[in-house]
# Entry
Amino acid sequence: MEETKLSGKSKHRDNTEYKSLMNRLNRIEGQVKGIKKMVETDVYCTDILTQVSAIQSALNAFNKELLTNHIKTCVVQDIKNGKEEKTIDELMVTLKKLMK
# Structure
C-alpha cells in the first residue's frame, strides 16, 4: 500500500484505534458503492440524497473519532515535548478546515 504523508509526519496507531477507523471506512466505502448502484439502477433522487446524507454523517463520525484520538495522543505528546505553540496553531488550522 502506498503511503500518503501530506504533512511529512506519520503516526503509529494501536490495534484498537486502527480497527475502529478501518471498520468505519469500510462501512463508508460500502455506502458509497451502494449509492453508485442506486444511480446505475435509476433509483429516485430523494432516496439517493437520503443515502448521501447518511454517508456525510458517517464521515463526520469518522472525523470526530480521529480528531479525538489526535488530540489525546499527538497533540498531548507534542505539548509535553515543548511544541505547544506550533501544535496549537496546527490544530486550529485543522479545525478551521473541518468547519467549512
Summary: The chain has a mean pLDDT of 93. The chain is about 75% helix and 0% strand. The two ends are 30 Å apart (CA to CA).
